[in-house]
Design brief:
The protein is of the alpha/beta class and about 290 residues long. Helices cover about 15% and strands about 25% of the residues. It is elongated and about 60 Å long. This is Leucine-rich repeat (LRR) family protein.
Length: about 290
């Protein structure tokens, strides 16, 4: 008989005396170990990946969904979260077998490249790779069609693949603090994008296709080499509420003379008026126009 007491609930795996312990959340939200129960399903795959990372002395966390079948049998249905933090240089190819994983966090490692089979993680919605040594992204990144949030802050990227335009569900893209000289024309095909952060790069100009991002609300490009932005940006990006271009060669006069500036300014002020009404603390920079005088 199948017991539904913990069916579908979040569970986790962590180091314990050189081995591992599997946990689940009971109906009251308490963390309980699966003791004296035999596990099957994708459990062995998780343990194989766990062992490879563990040899690097990394801090590892899994979350997965499980069902309790009978008194002493646990079925591991699907891993949905993986976090690894330590001195990892290479990502095991086996990670592509976690086809149901939704969140992958690999911040603050020494990763230099991503495996080309990463594109098989078709359920992935969130991927963060901040603080690594990645110089390029594989074209297969474009296969992650369910990806909603991608952060590669603080790496060594010199360019982004054109296939990034296939990420039609992407809402947030953070590529700040890299070595990017430009953004690909295909960025304009990320139609769901609401927030684009590319501060602290070497970007000289923006592709005209960025005007296609009709859902874009925030565009942050501080500390680059941008002397002008596409003429129709403020007019076409009708959801844009915040643009930040501090420490770029563009002038306030150029910005204010753009078509659509008055409408943009009205949206910007309305946004911050709401924040003030809600007692939201904002910095002094939050109220300026986003461009140096």
């Amino acid at each position: 008989m199948v017991h539904s007491l913990i069916d579908g609930r979040m569970t986790g795996i962590e180091p314990a005396r050189g081995g591992f312990t599997i946990h689940y959340l009971d109906p009251l939200g308490h963390i309980c170990p699966y003791l004296h129960r035999r596990c099957y399903g994708v459990c062995q795959l998780l343990l194989d990946i766990f062992a490879k990372f563990r040899r690097k002395n990394a801090d590892i966390h899994f979350l997965f969904q499980a069902s309790l079948l009978g008194e002493n049998l646990v079925k591991i249905n699907s891993a949905i979260y993986l976090s690894v933090k330590g001195m990892i240089v290479d990502i095991p190819m086996e990670i592509s077998k976690l086809i149901n994983i939704q969140r992958l966090v690999l911040d603050d490692n020494h990763i230099e490249r991503l495996p080309v089979n990463l594109g098989k993680l078709q359920s992935l919605k969130v991927m963060t790779l901040d603080g690594n040594r990645i110089t390029s992204l594989p074209d297969e990144l474009g296969q992650l069609v369910r990806l909603e949030r991608l952060s590669i802050l603080g790496n060594m990227l010199t360019c982004l693949p054109e296939t990034i335009g296939s990420l039609r569900n992407l809402v947030l893209l953070n590529v700040s603090n890299n070595k990017l000289k430009s953004l690909p024309e295909s960025i304009g095909s990320c139609y769901s994008l609401e927030e684009l952060q590319a501060n602290d790069n070497l970007i000289g100009e923006l592709p005209a296709s960025i005007c296609n991002l009709i859902h874009l609300k925030s565009l942050c490009l501080n500390n680059n080499n941008i002397g002008q932005i596409p003429a129709n940006l403020l007019k076409d990006c009708k959801a844009l509420q915040n643009i930040s271009l501090h420490n770029n060669p563009i002038s306030m006069d150029q910005f204010q003379q753009m078509e659509g500036f008055e409408e943009f300014e009205a949206r910007r002020r309305k946004k911050f008026d709401k924040q003030i009404d809600s007692n939201v603390m904002i910095s002094s920079k939050g109220l300026n126009e986003g461009v140096d005088k």
